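Format notes (please read before filing issues)

Several people have asked whether sequences and structure tokens are stored in separate files. They are not. Every record keeps both together, in the order shown below: the sequence lines, then the token lines. Line labels are part of the format and must not be stripped during preprocessing.
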Amino acid sequence: MSKIALVDDDRNILTSVSMTLEAEGFEVETYNDGQQALDAFNKKLPDMAVLDIKMPRMDGMDLLQRLRQKTTMPVIFLTSKDDEIDEVLGLRMGADDYVKKPFSQRLLVERIRALLRRQDAVEGNIVGETEDTKVMVRGDLTMDPLRHSVSWKGKDVTLTVTEFLLLQALAQRPGFVKSRDQLMDVAYDDQVYVDDRTIDSHIKRLRKKMRSADDDFSAIETLYGIGYRYNEE
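Then the structure lines:
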């Protein structure tokens, strides 16, 4: 049973969403603000966190920033329809997805399940060795899907599940272009819609992390209006 942390200062959302998730077989922990959640996470991390952005004491952005210092667990943001800037910023900081308020609880459940399935796949909870599970070496890049580890020129780089899957998809076929639609298929289930901006934000975050290991990292090339390509260095 996966444990989901739901963090929101709206008690109605906490009550209704937690009831839905529990009915779907999840174990749910609810928190009224980011600081309360962080205190609990410092003792034991859940399998996934669903965070509101605007909360008292510690907002969702601050909480995400602290979480990304120690964990790559999946994180979904809950945003209002006017939080477009916050959505992009959150994705660049390392959130895996976002859902706009007011939202369909069925959609939220589908996105939670999609992220957990991807987390399981990346962590190696799958049978047999495939191209997606073997250690991959592309020049200075080494990726081990079963250990969810990435290194560049021998330096470890910590990626979220989504970032890992996007980098893996690009690096598997150096020199070949992946369109945004193809990358969406890699990172998201068919029933989960995301727009081009979401993929672009993940790629920007991915580049930033790779450049933390090497200022000159340039293996991921943007082909404007087409997509992205990995160039083996």
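For reference, the curators noted about this record: The longest strand covers residues 3-7. The mean pLDDT is 85.
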